[in-house]
Amino acid sequence: MGAVKSKRMxxxxxxxxxxxxxxxxxxxxxxxxASMDEIxxxxxxxxxxxxxxxxxxxxxFIACIRREAKALVEAVRAGARPVLPADRQLWAGLxxxxxxTARHPDGWAVLHLQARTHGEVFAAEVTAMRADIVTFVTELxxxxxxxxxxxxxxxxxxxxxxxxxxxxxxxxxxxxxxxxPGVTARQASTTLxxxxxxxxxxxxxxRPWSPPDGEASDTGAGVGAGVGVGVGAEDTDAGAAxxxxxxxxxx
Amino acid sequence: MGAVKSKRMxxxxxxxxxxxxxxxxxxxxxxxxASMDEIxxxxxxxxxxxxxxxxxxxxxFIACIRREAKALVEAVRAGARPVLPADRQLWAGLxxxxxxTARHPDGWAVLHLQARTHGEVFAAEVTAMRADIVTFVTELxxxxxxxxxxxxxxxxxxxxxxxxxxxxxxxxxxxxxxxxPGVTARQASTTLxxxxxxxxxxxxxxRPWSPPDGEASDTGAGVGAGVGVGVGAEDTDAGAAxxxxxxxxxx
Lengths: 251, 251
Hints:
Chains A, B: Residues 35-54 bind DNA. 2 copies of one chain form a homodimer. By secondary structure, chain A is an all-alpha fold.
C-alpha cells in the first residue's frame, strides 16, 4: 500500500494496491466524496492507470465490494469449527466476524454503509453476500439443534428466523463497535454471546455466557482486548477447554 | 385513499392522501422507478398539485420517511409498558414493532430499504429515527437490569451494545417476516423473544420463552396469527397473566 511504484510490478499486485487505496478512501470519505485522483495518489499510480485497470469509479467500487465481501465470508467460514460444541462454534464464528470487521473497518464501512447507500446495483452485491452468510448460519444452527435435541423442537422455518436475527444483531454490533471508542472485537463477541446464547433472561438474572479459558491464542479474540484472557494457553478442537461457567460476567 | 377528489377537501387531508399514495408507490416499486405521475394518479390528484404541496420527488420522499418513522416510533413507544415485568415489557414492545411493520409493509420498505439505498440525505433521516429507538430500548433494558439486579452486573456500555443487537435483530426479522410467506407478526415476535430472552442456549435445550396466556386482545399480537391464542381473555397491566412457563415451545 502507499506510494510504492515500479514498472516491473505485476498487474495483479498493482490492482490490489489500487483496491487497498480505494477501500480506504471509500470507507473513510464515502463513495460520493471520494475522488479517483486521491485514490490514484494513495495507490501511488497515475489516474489513467486506475481507469485502465478498473474502468470506472462504479466498477472500482464494485470490485472493492466483491473483494471485501469475499474476505469477510472467508473469515467467518474459517472461524467456524464444526467439531466444537454449539456454543463454542458460535463463539468462534462471532469472534472471527468481529475480529475481521475490527481489523478492516474501512472494508466493513464499504460493505455495510457505503454499498447500501448509493444505489441498487451496489446494494445487490451486498445482499448476495448477506444471503450467503445467513445460509451458512442457518446450517450451523440446524446442525447444532439436531445435535442438541431429543425431539425436534426447532423447525427449519424457526431456525431461518433465528439466523436472520443473529446476522442482523451482528451487523448492528459491528457498526457500534467500530464507531464506539474502546469497544474491542472481544467485547462485541461477548455482548452478542450474552445476548444470543445466554439470553437477556439469564443475563438479567446475573447468568451471562462465559467464554472458555485460554482461547485467546486460538481464535484471535484477544485483538485489542486482553482483559482476563490467559495468553498462550493452548486450546484444542476437542473442546477440552473448560467453560468458566455462568457465574461471573466476562467483558 | 385512492381516487377520491374534492375541491373542498382540506389541504392536510389531501396531503395525507398524497403521502399514502407515495409510500405505497415508493415501497412497492422503489424510489428510482416510482414516478410522480403514478403517485398523483393513485392519490387522485393532478401532478402539479403534488408538486405544489410537496415541492419535488426528493421532498415528497423525505416527507414519507418522516411520517413513517414517526408512526413506527410512536407504535413501539405505545407498545412498551413500564409497569410490566421485563420479559413482558420486551414482548409487548416487540409485538408492537412487528405488528406495525406487518401492517405497514410499504412504510417499512421505505424506511429500511428505500431510504437507506438512495443517498446520504435520505439515509440520515432513518439514522436519526434508529438512534431514537436504540436510546429508548437502552433505557428499557437499563431499567429492567436495575430492577433485576442485586449487584450491578450490566454496566451501561454493555447495555448499549445489547440494545444495538436487539434493534439490529428486530430490523432483520421484520425484513424476513415481510418477505417470507406465512410468517406473522406473532411468529416474528416469538422468534425474537426466543432468541433474545431465552437465548439460543435454552432454546436448543428445548426451553423456549413462552408468551403469556390471553394477551391477544391486549397487544394486538394476534394479527394474522391466532394460533393457540385465547381470544377475548382480558389482561391487566398488573402482570396478573400467568406465564405459560418454559416447558413448551410456542410458534
